[in-house]
Specification:
The chain is of the alpha+beta class and 687 residues long. The protein has three domains: 400 residues, no CATH class; 92 residues, no CATH class; 142 residues, Sandwich (Immunoglobulin-like), CATH 2.60.40.770. Helix content is 47%, strand content 14%. It contains 23 helices and 17 strands. A hairpin with a 3-residue loop joins strand 8 and strand 9. The longest helix is centred in the N-terminal third of the chain and has 30 residues.
């Protein structure tokens, strides 16, 4: 166990001016890094639900906990990822939540509450990894580099995004990073053998998180070979590392020894199917839909997912790597780790940009080295420019530059929060460039969709059509059902349709394709300037769908005619349906609806003149994207002769009686003509 004195005194480095760093400085920095990492990972932890959590990891964690509590280790073989650390931490969150209820601290038992407490152990694990990583860096590199690297690691939006969810990628990242750093310290800096145990154990935990973390093993082998001693003398230390790896592997995943055949089949499936097969559908890369993105995918992902300063530091790294300083071997190991991972992952056809998060702590540390080199050059230049008037100018430059970079990194992280998952390098185009380059959308923004829907007065008892059922349903208020029909139909009580951003690369599934691009949305959810979700009004079914546009903003969408009470009431019942395409212009704000009843010769037998949606809702108040359905009785004379009749429907300006411009399909042949109107299907009047 690391004590405060360990942190304060272990490898207390000299600053670049030759003065020793005070004992309190590393303690305060340690606390600052921890506080920042904790804040960014716990703040608004239940902001939204990701697809994989809702579909897989919440349920898998419950199954895992049940297997442990039942004493059935074979049942812990659940996922091919294998996701063991994710399920362990999810199980801890379940137990923690149960305790809080038992102690009467928690009172709400919603899905989001459950998810938040399942995420808490994951977030704390990542905070702990950053702090241990910082402690290791302080023992291997100059304190300025260690501090800046830890702060970049703690504030990196891409890292933070996946450190806040119950998932596998970030856990593989944190454990892999610690394994490489601990191995570097133990073999290249003569650290205590206990660090080899930590390195081997973390490598096992990384592999138990996700199979691509296997890239740690060859990197550790390189570190071991590069330790500078004879191979025979190095073998015991390698055996210690391997022993720790095996022990943690067996202890953390009971199925390894209880059901090895089942574990093997799971892992084989993970490699051959999960990674070895192309995307089931298409994915998006560089603006094109594809099944196999190709070898450029991860280099582009690394560039776009960095922050501007991380990218700048990486570009400066070749200059910073000159010489034979003690930290060069550590930086080289991190560089090899990144290169090997990218090469290995590029061989698999299935690619997602979030897979690259595994090497981002390494990238941030490497970038910090490049930035510190630039700061050092600037610090040396300032005294020369000032002609030695103040010998401390260089030190102020160092401290001020690190402070400014750290502050910029923190403000950037807060600016993306809570949508760090949508963060892309602003220097390369930001979120918009990311949306054009990669498939985006993992559930973020659906909480805004739910908030808007829950505020609608007509939402209770209605169905919301969407393909994002598992991530949207828990956010909807009681009495609202999210629904998706595979047969392309919608229930009659469907009130709204939600199209999510995944349509950019996966296409729009029936029956939602009748809305996307066909009608203006009622509400659009945007995240950092990118449209993520569109909410559409779903009209009630109409007997005769029609598309005719009056003016520039009012579309006639269909009608229904009911003659069942014509003789009894002297009127037919006409149902009309409108769609507001845009805000209605002033000249149509008080438009009136006319309906003329015409015979085959065009003689008028009846008419209707009303507000199209009733006096309570004039066109000036129509909301773009909203369907309006109204029933109007059309009076007819009691002595109406038997025969065929047509309904001519149109809109006119009530002030000057001019009809609104109309765009509609041409009328049938031999139909009566009465100017700017829509001619509805004829109906028969019998005795």
């Amino acid at each position: 166990m690391l004590s405060t004195s360990d942190i304060a005194t272990a490898h207390r480095p000299r600053s670049s001016t030759g003065q020793r760093v005070g004992a309190t400085t590393p303690i305060l920095t340690f606390l600052l890094v921890g506080a920042i990492a904790l804040l960014l990972r716990l703040l608004n932890l239940g902001a939204f639900i990701t697809m994989d959590e809702a579909a897989f990891w919440v349920h898998r964690s419950h199954l895992f906990l049940q297997a442990i509590q039942a004493g059935d280790p074979a049942r812990t073989a659940i996922s091919p990822h294998p996701g063991v650390t994710t399920m362990w931490l999810g199980s801890v969150g379940i137990i923690l939540r149960q305790w809080l209820f038992a102690w009467n601290i928690l009172h709400e038992d919603s899905y989001l509450t459950m998810l938040v407490w399942m995420r808490v152990p994951v977030a704390l694990t990542h905070v702990g990894a950053i702090l241990v990583g910082y402690l290791l860096l302080r023992r291997m590199v100059p304190h300025t580099l260690a501090t800046l690297a830890a702060l970049l690691w703690a504030t990196d939006p891409f890292i933070t995004a996946y450190s806040r969810v119950l998932h596998v990628d970030a856990l593989a990242m944190s454990f892999s990073s610690l394994s490489v750093l601990a191995a570097c310290y133990a073999w290249h800096h003569q650290g205590h053998p206990a660090w080899l145990v930590l390195s081997g154990g973390c490598a096992a935990l990384a592999l138990l998180s996700k199979l691509p973390a296997l890239a740690v093993v060859p990197v550790v082998g390189i570190i071991w070979l590069w330790s500078g001693r004879r191979i025979v003398a190095r073998i015991p230390s390698l055996l210690l590392w391997g022993g720790a790896f095996l022990v943690v592997l067996l202890l953390a995943w009971p199925a390894v020894w209880a059901a090895p055949a089942k574990v093997f089949d799971l892992l084989r499936f993970g490699v051959e199917v999960e990674g070895g097969e192309p995307h089931i559908g298409t994915t998006l890369f560089l603006g094109k839909q594809t099944h196999q993105p190709g070898p450029l995918f991860y280099p582009v992902a690394l560039a776009l997912r960095t922050t501007p300063w991380t990218l700048a530091g990486l570009l400066l790294l070749p200059l910073a790597s000159r010489g034979r300083r003690p930290e060069i071997r550590t930086l080289a190991a991190l560089a090899w780790f990144t290169i090997l991972f990218v090469i290995a992952m590029s061989l698999f056809p299935k690619k997602l940009n979030r897979y690259a998060v595994l090497v981002f702590p390494a990238l941030d540390i490497l970038a910090a080295a490049g930035l510190v080199w630039a700061i050092e050059q600037l610090a040396r230049l300032v005294p020369l420019v000032s002609r030695g008037k103040n010998l401390n100018d260089g030190q102020w430059v160092r401290q001020g530059s690190v402070l400014l970079l750290s502050l910029a990194a923190l403000l950037n992280a807060l600016w993306w929060h809570p949508y760090e998952i949508a963060a892309f390098n602003q220097a390369l185009g930001g979120a918009s460039a990311g949306a054009r380059t990669f498939a985006i959308g993992w559930g973020e923004g659906l909480e805004q969709v739910a908030d808007w829907l829950n505020q609608q007065p007509d939402i209770t008892g209605r169905v919301v059509a969407s393909t994002m059922l598992q991530t949207l349903q828990p956010l909807l208020r009681k009495g609202v059902q999210a629904y998706h029909a595979e047969d392309g139909t919608l229930p009659d009580n469907t009130g709204y349709a939600v199209i999510y951003v995944r349509v950019q690369w996966a296409g729009t599934a029936m029956p939602l394709e009748q809305f996307f691009g066909q009608a203006p949305p009622l509400h659009t959810v945007r995240i950092h300037g990118v449209d993520y979700a569109w909410i559409y009004d779903v009209p009630p079914p109409i007997a005769h769908p029609t598309h005719a546009t009056f003016g520039s903003a009012m579309e006639f969408r269909g009608y229904g005619i009911d003659l069942s009470r014509l003789r009894a009431t002297g009127a037919l019942s006409l149902t009309v349906q409108w769609l507001a395409l845009a805000p209605v212009s002033k000249d149509a704000a008080d438009a009136r609806l006319f309906v003329h009843v015409l015979d085959a010769q065009g003689q008028r037998y009846g008419q209707l003149d009303v507000a199209p949606a009733g006096p309570e809702l004039p066109p000036s108040r129509w909301q773009p994207g909203r369907f309006i359905t109204r029933v109007h009785p059309v009076p007819l004379p009691p002595d109406l002769p038997v025969g065929k009749y047509w309904l001519a429907l149109g809109l006119y300006d009530r002030h000057d009686a001019t009809r609104l411009p109309l765009r509609s399909p041409p009328p049938p042949e031999n139909a009566p003509d009465d100017g700017e109107h829509v001619l509805l299907l004829p109906f028969e009047v019998t005795r």
